[in-house]
C-alpha cells in the first residue's frame, strides 16, 4: 500500500511540474502526462502490483470520458447518427483492417492470424485524446466533429469482436459459433438491463436522491451509476467504457443530464491524466533506440495510409474539406489497440519485439494528435480551400444594422424568414450546413451565409450588437446552448429570442440572461388547451 501511494505521489508531482513548464510553450497537457509516464518508468522502479493499481485507476479516465460523451448523445441522437456510426465507421474499420492485415502478411511476413490481429488493431483511433480535444475546442458538434465521433463510436464497438478474434485464434475448446452465440446473448442482456433501468428506474432514483438535498449524496449516486454500468458490461465480457457510454445515453434522457455532466468533469479530467501517464509508462527506451528506424518508418506509413484511406472513403459522402479534417483527426492508432496487443502477446500471437515496436509507434502517433487537432484548420487550408464564393459573400456582411439574425434554417427558421420577407424586414440567416446554404443560394436567397453561430467571432462579424433581434431556432440542444452563451457575452440590451424543448433547458438558458424563451412543449400545450376550450364553448 505504501508503494502504491508513493507511485501516485511521484506521478502527480512529475505530471504537475512538467505540465506547468510545457504550458508556457502552449504544449497540450496530454503530452506532459505521457512524458511523465515515460520518466517514471525509466527512472523509478516499483512493484508490479503498485503499477497494476495505477493502471486500473487509469481505466476510469476513459470510463468517465465515454460516460460524459454518452450524456451528450441520447438513444434518439444515436439513431440520427446511424450513417456516421455504422456506414462511415464500419467502412473505416473493415477497409483499414484488411489493408493493414495484407501489408503485415505480405511485407512483414506475419502469420495470417497475427496479421489480422495487428491489422484490425491499427484500424482503431484514440477515443480518449480525440474526443478530449474536440470537447476542449467546442468542435464535437461541428461537421467533421460529428463524423469523427461516429467513426470513433463504431471503433469502440469493434473492440469487442477484435478481442473475440484473439480468443478464436487461441481457443482449443470453444467453437466459433458457440463463442458468437455467447457474445450475442451477453450483449442482449447488457443492453436490455441498462435500457430498462434507464427508462423506468434511473430518473425516479435521482428524484429520491435529490429529496435528501445533499450535493455529496447526489455525486456519490452518480459515481455509483457509472461504476455499476461499467461493472455490468465487464461481467458480460465487454469493456468498462462501453457500459459507461450506454449508461450516459440512458441518463441523457433525464432532467439531470447537465448537472451530472458538470459534477463529473473534474473526476474525468484528473483520471484521464492518470490514463495518459500509464500510456507513457509502457515505453521501453531500449526498444526505442534499437528499433528507432523501424518505428519511424511504421509511424509515417501508418499515418499516411490511414489518413488517405479515411479521406478516400468519406469524400464520396461528405464535403471534401470535412473528409480531410476527419482523416486528420483519426490518423493515429488508439489506446484500445494497446489492450489488443497486450492480450495477443499474452496468448503468444505476437512476439515481445513486435509488441514493443507497435506500442511505441502507437504512443508516438498519439503524441502527434493534439498538435494536429489544435491546428487542423490551418492544415486543412494548406491542402484544400473553403468554398470561395460563400467565403467572399460572408466577408461583405459587416455593414448590417437594425437587422434580424436567424440562427438555423430548419423548418422554424424557414417559416420565420418567409414572414420577414413578406413584411420587407431586413434579415440575415446563419446556417452551418453547406448543402442547405448552396440550395438556398441556388433558389435566389441572398441573405443566407455559411457560418457557425456557436462561434463568438461569427456573431461579432455579423454585428449582433446592433441587430433588432437574434432568433435561435437550431434543433441541436448543445449548439443552441453554445450560441446563447455567446449572445450573453455581448451587450445585455440585445433582443434575444430562443426556442427550447422543455422546462429543464428553459431553466438553463434563462440563467444565461436570454430575454425571451419560447418553450415549445408549453406553447403547444397552451394552444391545444385553447382549441379544446373553444370547441367546448361552441358546443354549448
How is the largest sheet built, in terms of strand order? 3-2-1-4-5-6
Runs in which pLDDT lies below 50 for 5 or more consecutive residues are: 388-398
Which strand-content bin applies to the residues? under 5%
Rounded to the nearest angstrom, the radius of gyration is 26 Å
Q: The CATH topology of the largest domain is what?
A: Na+/H+ antiporter like fold
Describe the SSE topology.
Layout: H1 2-23, H2 29-43, H3 48-72, H4 75-80, H5 82-106, H6 112-122, H7 127-136, H8 143-170, H9 176-200, H10 202-210, H11 215-235, H12 240-251, H13 257-281, H14 285-290, H15 292-314, H16 320-329, H17 335-346, H18 352-374, H19 376-383, H20 388-395, E1 404-407, H21 411-422, E2 427-431, H22 434-442, E3 448-450, H23 456-461, E4 469-472, H24 477-488, E5 496-500, H25 503-510, E6 516-519, H26 520-539
Parallel strand pairs: 1-2, 1-4, 2-3, 4-5, 5-6
Helix pairs in contact: 1-2, 1-3, 2-13, 3-7, 3-12, 3-13, 5-6, 5-8, 5-15, 6-8, 6-17, 7-18, 8-16, 8-17, 9-12, 11-12, 15-16, 15-18, 16-19, 17-18
Amino acid at each position: 500500500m505504501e508503494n502504491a501511494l508513493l507511485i501516485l505521489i511521484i506521478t502527480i508531482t512529475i505530471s504537475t511540474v512538467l505540465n506547468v513548464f510545457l504550458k508556457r510553450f502552449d504544449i497540450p497537457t496530454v503530452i506532459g502526462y505521457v512524458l511523465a509516464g515515460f520518466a517514471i518508468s525509466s527512472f523509478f522502479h516499483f512493484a508490479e502490483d503498485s503499477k497494476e493499481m495505477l493502471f486500473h485507476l487509469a481505466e476510469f479516465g476513459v470510463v468517465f470520458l465515454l460516460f460524459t460523451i454518452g450524456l451528450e448523445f441520447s438513444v434518439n441522437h444515436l439513431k440520427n447518427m446511424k450513417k456516421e456510426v455504422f456506414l462511415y465507421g464500419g467502412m473505416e474499420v473493415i477497409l483499414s483492417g484488411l489493408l493493414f492485415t495484407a501489408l503485415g502478411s505480405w511485407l512483414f511476413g506475419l502469420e495470417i492470424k497475427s496479421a489480422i490481429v495487428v491489422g484490425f488493431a491499427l484500424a482503431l483511433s484514440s477515443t480518449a485524446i480525440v474526443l478530449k480535444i474536440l470537447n476542449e475546442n467546442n468542435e464535437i458538434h461541428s461537421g467533421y466533429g460529428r463524423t469523427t465521433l461516429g467513426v470513433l463510436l463504431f471503433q469502440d464497438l469493434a473492440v469487442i469482436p477484435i478481442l473475440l478474434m484473439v480468443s478464436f485464434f487461441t481457443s482449443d475448446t470453444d467453437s466459433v459459433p458457440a463463442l458468437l452465440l455467447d457474445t450475442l446473448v451477453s450483449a442482449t442482456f447488457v443492453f436490455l438491463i441498462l435500457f430498462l433501468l434507464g427508462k423506468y428506474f434511473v430518473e425516479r432514483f435521482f428524484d429520491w436522491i435529490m429529496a435528501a438535498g445533499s450535493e455529496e449524496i447526489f455525486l456519490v449516486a452518480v459515481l455509483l451509476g457509472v461504476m455499476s454500468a461499467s461493472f455490468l458490461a465487464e461481467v458480460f465480457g465487454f469493456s468498462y467504457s462501453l457500459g459507461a457510454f450506454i449508461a450516459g445515453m440512458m441518463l441523457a434522457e433525464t432532467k439531470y443530464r447537465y448537472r451530472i455532466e458538470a459534477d463529473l468533469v473534474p473526476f474525468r479530467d484528473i483520471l484521464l491524466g492518470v490514463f495518459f501517464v500509464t500510456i507513457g509508462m509502457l515505453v521501453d527506451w531500449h526498444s526505442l533506440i534499437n528499433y528507432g528506424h523501424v518505428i519511424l518508418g511504421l509511424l509515417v506509413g501508418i499515418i499516411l495510409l490511414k489518413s488517405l484511406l479515411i479521406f478516400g472513403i468519406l469524400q464520396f459522402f461528405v464535403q471534401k474539406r470535412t473528409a480531410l479534417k476527419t482523416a486528420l483527426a483519426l490518423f493515429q492508432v488508439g489506446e484500445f489497440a494497446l489492450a489488443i496487443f497486450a492480450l495477443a502477446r499474452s496468448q503468444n500471437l505476437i512476439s515481445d519485439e513486435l509488441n514493443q515496436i507497435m506500442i511505441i509507434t502507437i504512443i508516438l502517433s498519439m503524441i502527434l494528435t493534439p498538435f494536429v487537432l489544435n491546428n487542423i484548420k490551418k492544415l486543412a487550408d494548406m491542402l484544400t480551400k473553403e468554398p470561395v464564393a460563400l467565403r467572399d459573400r460572408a466577408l461583405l456582411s459587416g455593414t448590417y444594422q437594425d437587422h434580424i439574425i436567424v440562427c438555423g434554417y430548419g423548418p422554424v427558421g424557414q417559416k420565420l424568414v418567409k414572414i420577414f420577407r413578406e413584411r420587407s424586414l431586413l434579415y440575415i440567416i446563419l446556417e452551418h450546413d453547406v448543402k442547405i446554404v448552396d440550395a438556398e443560394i441556388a433558389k435566389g436567397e441572398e441573405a443566407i451565409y455559411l457560418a457557425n453561430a456557436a462561434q463568438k467571432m461569427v456573431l461579432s462579424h455579423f454585428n449582433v450588437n446592433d441587430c433588432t433581434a437574434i432568433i435561435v431556432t437550431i434543433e441541436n440542444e448543445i449548439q443552441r446552448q453554445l450560441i446563447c452563451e455567446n449572445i450573453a457575452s455581448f451587450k445585455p440590451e440585445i433582443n434575444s429570442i430562443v426556442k427550447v424543448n422543455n422546462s429543464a433547458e428553459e431553466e438553463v438558458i434563462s440563467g444565461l440572461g436570454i430575454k425571451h424563451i419560447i418553450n415549445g412543449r408549453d406553447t403547444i400545450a397552451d394552444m391545444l388547451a385553447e382549441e379544446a376550450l373553444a370547441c367546448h364553448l361552441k358546443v354549448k
